[in-house]
Design a protein that fits this description.
This protein has helices at residues 2-12, 18-28, 32-35, 39-66, 82-100, 106-125, 133-152, 157-176, 182-201. The protein is mainly α and 203 residues long. It has one domain. The longest helix is centred in the first third of the chain and has 28 residues, at 39-66. The chain is globular, with a radius of gyration of 16 Å.
């Protein structure tokens, strides 16, 4: 049961899904920049982000797998992460560029810019060690929520608490599955949280 729970948690909160989840939160949270967006525009944005951050990257990773550039979709070896992370970084930057063209708050596009930067950092680090991509994603979510909350004096307490709890559970799951050492978990979360917090606190 515990093994099944850790696998399910790692799948549901796969790092590739985190930007999409974060976009859903930003689009629906009770803030001025979300309330100003018409429902039709929110649906367009949601579909676009889903396609550019999940569907297309998955398609290209599948192509890399077929070309035997990665051995499996789990990318257990740090060397296997380089090309998939480069692919994801490119699509994240494309998403950032597309979001800039919409008449919406720059918070949305800046999040994708931060995600692009984090993915590039993760790719560079992967040449030397296997940092937790799951925790970079969760840390980024936490850092963004904290940065926006403090910068705009918004009450996002429950979202912040949820990010901390999910981050703890996910970190536990990654250690239990022997996917990472504790140092990989802590460094991943701190990297994601630090980059996103600094990006949004000084806007």
């Amino acid at each position: 049961m515990e093994d099944r729970f850790t696998k399910m948690l790692s799948l549901v909160f796969h790092p590739l899904f985190i930007p999409f989840y974060m976009m859903l939160i930003l689009l629906n949270v009770n803030t001025f920049f979300a309330l100003a967006i018409p429902v039709k525009t929110k649906l367009i944005l949601t579909s676009m982000v889903f396609a550019s951050t999940i569907l297309l990257p998955l398609l290209f990773v599948f192509i890399l797998y077929r070309l035997k550039m990665v051995r499996s979709f789990y990318m257990e070896q740090k060397e296997e992460r380089i090309y998939p992370l480069l692919t994801v970084a490119i699509f994240y930057y494309i998403t950032y560029y597309l979001l800039k063209g919409f008449p919406i708050s720059f918070f949305f596009s800046y999040y994708m810019l931060g995600s692009t930067f984090l993915t590039i950092l993760a790719m560079i680090i992967s040449f030397y060690r296997k940092i937790s991509l799951h925790m970079i994603g969760m840390g980024g979510m936490f850092g963004l929520l904290m940065g926006i909350s403090l910068n705009l004096s918004l009450d996002l307490t429950w979202f912040v608490i949820a990010a901390i709890i999910l981050g703890g559970l996910l970190g536990f799951a990654r250690i239990q599955s022997n996917s990472h050492k504790p140092s990989d978990i802590y460094s991943g979360f701190l990297l994601g949280a630090g980059v996103m917090f600094l990006l949004f606190i000084f806007l």
